[in-house]
Write the structure tokens for this entry.
Amino acid sequence: MTDFETLFRAYMNQSCSEQDKEKLFAMMADQENDARLYEIIDRVMAEPGEEIVIEEERADEILSVLQQAIPKKHKRGRMVSITRWAAAAAVVTGLGTLYWIYPSSKPSKNNQQAATAQDIQAASQGAILTLGDGKQVTLDSLQKGVIANQGGTNVSLAHGTIAYDDHRAAAVSYNTLSTPKGRLFHLVLPDGSDVWLNAASAVTYPTSFSGKERVVTLKGEAYFDIKPDAAKPFSVRLADNTEVKVLGTAFNINAYENEHVTATTLINGSVQINAGNNSSILKPGYQANVAHATPGIKVSRADTSQVLAWKNGIFNFEDADIQAVMKQLERWYDIEVQYENGIPAIIFGGKMDRNLSLSNIIRMLEISDVHCRLEGKKLIIRQ
């Protein structure tokens, strides 16, 4: 066990001397120790035990130490490290009190109510399925089983996934699976291909791929894992006339209307990007960006861990400006973000869990000197 971890455990157990506490706080204030701090918190939280409650005064003491580190400079503005705030969030819950919650323990009922009062929770499983006849089915609360039959194709729901059985299909219709803000869902297409749909997104597809090709359309963001079928190539068509053609591969498409570019990132296999008169074939680990305002395809190496962070339950804000961060928060928490007195020149770095409630996100932003307030479902950012 390192000296850092020994001091941290002693402080959490309230057995730390003033001299050792000063030494610990100096280590915590050093940004070079961010990764080590997060690892220690993660390791201690994984151990069985009882709940340790630290009162408001000591909670603020820890948070103020983390806040004292001088922010890094960045060519596009002030740099904010999310890693230390993610570490703080691992122990910060409720209003004014810091808790260290072990897996076997639960907060008291009163503290749970305080933490959730006027709060917005993270996105959860849920979607709306629009059938071929226009009927809409809300999937959030349905029991598992067959939820529709369209021209001989059964649509089934189980464990947060809808799937299609087209072995007896007599006719083909088109369905649309759409997720509002604050929801995400998993779809198995009639050919067995998997589609994970991010918040505020929609995919339209046939109930049976009976023709010579498999074609779906996408708005928003989705991760595709396509079953190989050389006789029936797979294509994803986007609103900006961009088309992604594949045989059998895994890739992510970000095609939100409020983003400046449509981004296709290849994980494995091969895809061809068609945009107007331009065409490009991607290699695994590369991303093709098609700008909405100007023609052409820009291909560059991608940070696939950042691209797939949403699918893996993580916010990855590495080198993201405040507008990019807030767009993700808008979709994930079903909120609207507004800026008072202009947009702050802030660049974020680091990762954190997507399961945090909005109140914890706001507290971390305030700690990192990003001032904001929540009015209903409107998050207002102040300079």
Remarks:
- The domain at 124-307 is CATH 2.60.120.1440 (Jelly Rolls).
- Residues 69-74, 91-117 have pLDDT under 50 and may be disordered.
- The longest helix spans residues 18-29.
